[in-house]
Amino acid sequence: MILEVSCGSVEEAVLAATAGADRLEICHALSTGGVTPSLGFFESVRDSVSIPVFVMVAQPEADFAVNPSDFGAMARDVAHFSKAGADGFVFGCLLPDGRLDGESNRRLVEIADGKPCTFHRAFDSIADPVRTATQLAEIGFARILTSGHAPNAGEGAPLLAELIALGLIRILPGGGVRPENALRLQQAGANELHFSIRSGTKEGGYLGYPLPTFDPERVAAIRAAIR
To answer: Residue 31: what pLDDT?
Structure first.
């Protein structure tokens, strides 16, 4: 079982790696769903851990529908992070009507130049998950990050099992993955799980915004649950 931890700071990434994570997904503004991190953040994480680091590439403060100018920035980001040593990418582009933007996604996969790409949880807003999974496999994505069209992956286990059984593309359950539901997801056929180690907040952030608190022991707890 590969355990991927989503991280929004260098401290968080180091804690996750030290606790036994197999792979990291990094982004900024994790509490909002995540946007593209800075190159300096990526390089600091890359210098601090020895496990694979995937970079989220997403336009800030917007939905998944990508306009031409923002797409140009995303394409540059994929090229820059690839050159800097990113092990893979996480992104997902939709059309304004909520359907898959095949052209934009295909172009970003091409720019990634063979590095594995994960289609993120934009997948959970698309009406036809089976058809979309087929399209994403054809475009060249390595995996889909999804809660199974449910509030959390535990509740979405039936659809996750259906998608895994298709055998078209790797399915990465994410969203509310905890020790309590990890075994259910494994039994659904999952061999990768995605979660964060954030456990709450504390005071002290900029202009009163709360800061996250971390529970790196969650990594070991999830691994113990599936053993």
So the answer is: 86
Task: Give the residues of the chain that fall short of pLDDT 50.
Answer: none
- Note the Cα 64 to chain centre separation in Å: 14
pTM for the structure as a whole: 0.95
**Contact in structure between 6 and 34 (CB atoms under 8 Å):** yes
Strands 211-214 and 198-202 turn out to be antiparallel
- How far is 8 from 6, CA to CA, in rounded Å? 7
- CB proximity list for 145: less than 8 A, separation 6 or greater: 90, 118, 119, 120, 121, 123, 172, 174, 194
CB distance 10 to 37 below 8 Å: no
Q: Beta strands 198-202 and 53-56: pairing type?
A: unpaired
Residues 42-87: tens digit of each pLDDT: 999 999 999 999 999 997 666 788 888 889 999 999 999 999 999 9
Show Cβ contacts of residue 172 under 8 Å, excluding neighbours closer than 6 positions.
Answer: 4, 118, 143, 144, 145, 146, 190, 192, 193, 194
Q: Scanning the structure block, which residue is given the tokens 């009507």? A: 97
